[in-house]
Design brief:
mainly alpha; Four Helix Bundle (Hemerythrin (Met), subunit A); 7 helices; 0% strand
């Protein structure tokens, strides 16, 4: 009973955060969600829960496809093209990892996504200035959570 209530509470909190998030923060949240699910999928592989692993990695691949579709190829130039190829590679590796139950491939994708997320987090203040908002130092707490995702 408590678990169900806690899950509902978390869902309400997440919904509130999504509704109040700007586009930059939404991308951060997608990356965080992918990293969390990859970490959980590794545990599922270790526990031989292959159905759970497949669901989690399937969701990660959907998130990566969403990140890929959010790229602005007109404004992004070479960076956008490189990210597009990298996201494509990451999804192929996750597909291989899922079929081989290989946590090292998941670690590789986590490492790549952490690198992208680190760069994205690094431009947060610049983004806020361009949209006329004052940078919120609280959001930099995401940096401390990166260590918990480390591959």
């Amino acid at each position: 009973m408590y678990s169900k209530g806690a899950n509902q509470y978390r869902q309400v909190g997440l919904t509130s955060e999504v509704e109040g998030a700007d586009p930059h923060r939404l991308i951060q949240m997608l990356m965080e969600g992918a990293l969390i699910r990859m970490s959980q999928a590794k545990t599922m592989i270790t526990d031989k829960n292959y159905e759970g692993k497949a669901k989690l990695l399937g969701r990660v691949m959907e998130i990566i496809a969403t990140l890929q579709s959010s790229l602005d190829n007109e404004k992004g130039g070479d960076i956008s093209a490189n990210l597009d190829r990298l996201y494509d590679y990451m999804n192929r590796r996750l597909l291989e990892a899922s079929s081989a139950n290989d946590t090292t491939m998941i670690d590789e994708v986590m490492s790549l996504l952490l690198e992208i997320k680190s760069g994205w987090d690094g431009i947060r203040e610049e983004y806020l200035v361009t949209i006329g908002k004052k940078p919120n130092k609280q959001l930099s707490s995401n940096e401390s959570t990166l260590a918990s995702y480390s591959a």
